[in-house]
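=== How it folds ===
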Amino acid sequence: MVISKTRIKKSENKKMKSSDDIMYADARYKTAEGVKESLVRYMMQVVGRDPKFADKNDWYKAVSYLLRGYLSHNYLKSARNEVKDDYKRMYYLSMEYLPGKNLRKFIIDADMESNLNQALEEFKISIDDLEEFEPEPALGNGGLGRLASCFFDSIATHGYPGHAYGIRYEYGLFRQSIENGEQKEYPENWLTHGYPFEFERSELVYPISFGGEVVKFINNDGKEQRQWEPAERLKAVAFDIPVSGYKTESATSMRLWSARADSDFNLDSFNTGNYIDAVKEKTNSESLSKVLYPEDSTLAGQVLRFKQEYFSVSASVQDIIRRFLRTHSDFNELPEEVSIHLNDTHPTLAIVELIRILVDEHGLHMNDAWRIAQGVFSYTNHTLMAEAMETWPISVFEELLPRHLDIIYYINQDFMDRVKVRFPGDLEKLSQMSLIDDADRRVRMAFLCIVSSHHINGVSELHSQLMKDSIFNNFYQMFPERFTNVTNGITPRRWVRQANPKLAGLITKTIGSDNWVTNLDLLTGLNNYSSKKSFTKELLKIKSQNKERLANYIKEIWDIDVDTNSMFDIQVKRIHEYKRQLLNVLHIITRYNRIKSGQDLTKRTIVIAGKAAPAYKQAKLIIRLINDIAVLINNNEEVNNKLKVVYIPDYNVSKAQIIIPAADLSEQISLAGLEASGTGNMKFSMNGALTIGTMDGANVEIANCVGEDNIFIFGLRTPEVADRKNDYDPRYYYDKNSELREVIDMIGSGYFNPENPERYQDIVNSLLNEDKYMLLADYESYVQAQEKVDACFENQSEWANKSVINIANMGFFSSDNSVANYAKNIWNLKKTKK
């Protein structure tokens, strides 16, 4: 079937233009009295409580609903403008978002902070009182999800027509508790009391199918056609969470999908006494949106993850097509009107789902659907690690998505024919580049992304170059024009304006305006103040106050007193061997030994935080080791006035907003060539911490921006890592360095855990027999760099000077710049009119 190339005229869309008079930001929110009147109205009419008897939780709800109403105006106005002026839209598909708490962000973005505080004063309530009642949306785990949330803050702030899609995880990843030094996982019940900022879109329900078979038949035109007849069906229900722009009427949303059974309750089973079977379908279906990253050490867990990925993208693609068909009818126009961006390989199935819908439901020829998909999709790669490159067994496709496997085979055959032309006679290239790994019978999802996307980007200059030079070199040779770089960025609204308001105030006072909040390049004006004592004195005072706040938090959770005059040395990120928290541990023990031997070292408080995957035994063992070391050091009177070690449990955005502004030193110590970018490194530097790190990921670009004199670089460089991999012998470094040998022997002997001396033997064996991430090779250089850190910190004037230079030169790492790059060079978006 050929669809005629027609466009719905704007004049035919009068319903979308009606009622424009209601699309305004309510003037009552512009004064304290107006805010108070609105707040009382929401308390009485929405929360249903008398303001005289309302408690803090009631006021949290009233303020939240007031903000939701305010944001609705902006979101609806932005959406109407997009449709009315026929803007191209970008749809961002990600399995993770990590927005953090939204209450204060929405208040700041609405420029309502002062008026709301005044309005609340009469009721003896403050914004601080309300934040404790707000749950933190458990929609992501780490950098991937936080990056997506930073991007959408920038998209909303600068008025780009972009929309986010994901899953409404009921329990998120997990809530981490540290019990007897060990990580324990508990459900993260963030939706227990509801979430006032979300809108359920009960009218937006899409069917999701699995299993069954593909039936072949001859259609009326005499051509073979295939039809999928699924065996299992469920539904995806939409929930929207608004994303506000900073002091602007622009807004967008995250559309999150919740799984529902096609039939909630089987009355026949119930009436015959089969009570479990009566709700079995509901239970099985709704498991798809229960948790982020189900434990995948079993086939059942892997299948659940696969079904989650398809569930998310199928609902999203159906919704994208619905939006497109509201104003257009020719699918050849889809690449002109729609950009779909894949945040890593998790949403890869969106490519195949779009082709399936175009072919099976709208009658396009496979060649046309394949061409359209290549014009629509773009892909960001987030890892160079082969073990993290997502693949799925063909058997899982055969069982759950047989029609999609048909389409993948078609794409692969078409692509292999092109490879034969580009590399004639090179059979090895055919094997290396095939979307199907014949040896393991798996589908290579990253390869499918590359051949289906008009642009593929890495997330730092080093990462993007390594993509072209190593893992995707064959594809780069074939499609050099598709590969590009977009260095990650973070939003200064969340990570300075909100997390560090006193620093934000100092910057505004010094620069003369707060325009830097949306144009971070203006921070370069601070370079002129790096040696001005009045400025650096105030900067150090703010740092001290932030350290006091973190010290109070540590006292609250662990009853440990830490010295705010000590250096706050912080490493917070997902616990993984390649992140090398264990290298940090080796330095901690070295430091302990030196203090015990009588050396007078700079006082340090070393803070570590992060979650380990529940099935990742080695990472969980590292957490246990850190906590065992902390107990010994913090209770040892010989050293605890010079060294404290603190593990902060259940790291999330809210805790990051306390920890990051307090940091003096930022630990970014992964092995060179493994960290694609990192964004924690940017957050710390933007808040004035100095970095100790390898030349890895965005550390390279940070060093270029701030100057290598203002960052502490150590360790092997990427080419050196590659050169040593084949003949690397960790025992050489163990034998050569007596201080390192002593540290490892202490871990292996049970020095930190005499009740169970064998506990950490796996860690020692891993270091001495493999050391996959070359900790021992980098140890000596790392310790030497830490000595330079000590010397610099003792000279607070020099330290403050470097801190100012770091803050002043972070403009490049604003997510505003990243999004502008994507919009211009990949998505082809224009800003909407405000």
Notes: The mean pLDDT is 93. The first strand starts at residue 89 and ends at 93.
